[in-house]
Hints:
Layout: E1 13-22, E2 43-45, E3 54-59, E4 65-72, E5 80-85, H1 86-92, E6 97-104
Parallel strand pairs: 1-5, 2-4
Antiparallel strand pairs: 1-6, 2-5, 3-4, 3-6
Amino acid sequence: MAQAQPQETSGKVIQSGRASWYGPGFHGRRTASGETFNTNDLTAAHRTLPFGTKVRVVNKRTGKSVVVRINDRGPYAHGRVIDLSRASAQAIGISGVGAVTVAEL
């Protein structure tokens, strides 16, 4: 019998690629949106999405997903599509870099 596959997203996929997390050196500093970065919040950095946009990020390996709010710019590392706060990355099982899809809600 075939196993059920987790549903990746309920909205339109905006991007697929690699995600990383950031936090220790940025916690308490101002983000590009002007708010104070808190690595324990479910937030993320994206190059072009408007601040305040909420997206679902799905870890392709685990199928786990998290809804994050864009509040910063980045990532600046080549080949990455989104930088997650530590809490966001932990929620979907990413401890370094992982393959994800980013979808609109």
